[in-house]
Amino acid sequence: MAKIGDIDVGDFPLLLAPMEDVSDPPFRALCKEQGADVVYTEFISSEGLIRDAAKSVMKLDIYEKERPVGIQIFGAVLESMLKSVEIVEASGPDIIDINFGCPVKKVVSKGAGAGILKDIDLMVSLTEAMVKHTKLPVTVKTRLGWDHDSIKIVEVAERLQDVGCAAISIHGRTRAQMYKGDADWRPIADVKNNPRMHIPVFGNGDVNTPERAVEMRDKYGLDGAMIGRASIGYPWFFKEVKHFMNTGEKLKPPTLEERIEAARRHLQMSIDWKGEILGVFETRRHYTNYFRGIPHFKEYRMKLVTSDHSEDVFAAMDLIEKKFAGYEFV
Ligand SMILES: Cc1cc2nc3c(=O)[nH]c(=O)nc-3n(C[C@H](O)[C@H](O)[C@H](O)COP(=O)(O)O)c2cc1C
What pLDDT was estimated at residue 109? Predict the structure, then answer.
């Protein structure tokens, strides 16, 4: 049974990965309904939070039904990180997560995200200061290292644990790899196999089939799987993985009606949360996966992803429901 601080997250929990412009409250709620055990917000800038930038502050919203939820922040300046811990705490999350893994230039160049992998002492001291500054469990999400020649994740994870980090999620790539190549789970297993390690070690990167989740559990012996891209437009992935882990059998994919129902609710929740324009715009990236596999779908997908008004998107969904009624997904 894995625990993050005092929070019981079950046996081999499935965690929804933090994903910018994806892991928002509507999507997190859908993933939670489908079996995600812990969900994380997208990363939120500590500098944005302390400036009270509206966009950063809005990302703190959480729904009761999605708990336990972790809010992820990034930054490299101690005072800003500590101040943002106070701001984050006020919105009542269950966990505070620190992003030490984002590879993008504009983050890394400020020494934040994966940039901190070049200064492990700072990574450890920032984590320690944040742990001391809050009663909430503090978790870390990071990568294997800066590049292939500087992988010291076993030592880094142990140091983070020793300053009070409550769990660690490790993406099996280096910063230099960005998203290229395959995620390597062996160094993550090395972290787990360190006899001094007692906090949960969650694996991340390329868990894109139920079989791979089982491999992460049984072959690599990790404590849980953090899932990102495989869930975009496919929140059922969590349920499918759980079912397969428990029974060894594959669930039937969701029916067209279930997909339409989820897509409608997703859009409606997004509009309720961020307004018509952003709600319509930001739900678009999910539709391809919601309806993946339907032949000759391009015309309908275009309607979904180019309509600017929600009534047109809902009308397209009605049309898809009629046109492809009874379609059997494989
Ligand atoms: C669209 C997108 C946005 C992401 N945003 C974040 C983020 O805000 N914070 C973070 O720690 N990782 C972020 N990531 C990385 C994911 O959390 C995850 O580590 C990565 O996608 C590998 O897992 P996967 O193979 O299951 O997708 C993002 C990934 C994607 C695809």
Answer: 96
Q: What's the rounded Cα separation, in Å, for the pair 25 and 204?
A: 21
Closest CA to 263 of 314, 301, 303: 314
Q: What are phi and psi of 155, to 5 degrees?
A: -65, -40
Residues of the chain falling short of pLDDT 50: none
- Chain position carrying tokens 């180019």: 306
Calculate the CA 310 to chain-centre distance.
26
Q: 100 C-alpha vs ligand 1 centroid, how far in Å?
A: 12
pTM over 0.90: yes
Query: Closest ligand 1 atom to the C-alpha of 17?
Result: 17
Distance CA 188, CA 183 (A): 10
pLDDT of residue 64: 95
**Residue 23, pLDDT score:** 97
Ligand 1 atom, smallest distance to 206 CA: 25
Residues with CB under 6 A from ligand 1: 17-20, 22, 42-43, 72, 99, 101-102, 141, 171, 204-207, 227-230
* pLDDT value, residue 40: 98
- Rounded Cα distance between 65 and 55, Å, is 23
- For a substitution probing ligand 1, which of 117, 177, 229, 234 has the most ligand atoms within 8 Å of its CB? 229
What's the confidence (pLDDT) of residue 327? 96
Whose CA is closest to atom 28 on ligand 1?
19
Q: Measure 228 CA to ligand 1 centroid, in angstroms.
A: 6
Query: What's the CA gap between 206 and 294, in Å, rounded?
Result: 24
Nearest to 164 by CA among 131, 187, 189, 196: 131
High-pLDDT (> 90) share of the chain, %:
98
The predicted structure's pLDDT at residue 258: 97
Closest residue by Cα to atom 10, ligand 1, is 18
For ligand 1, atom 19, the nearest C-alpha belongs to 171
Here the tokens at position 148 are 């292939």
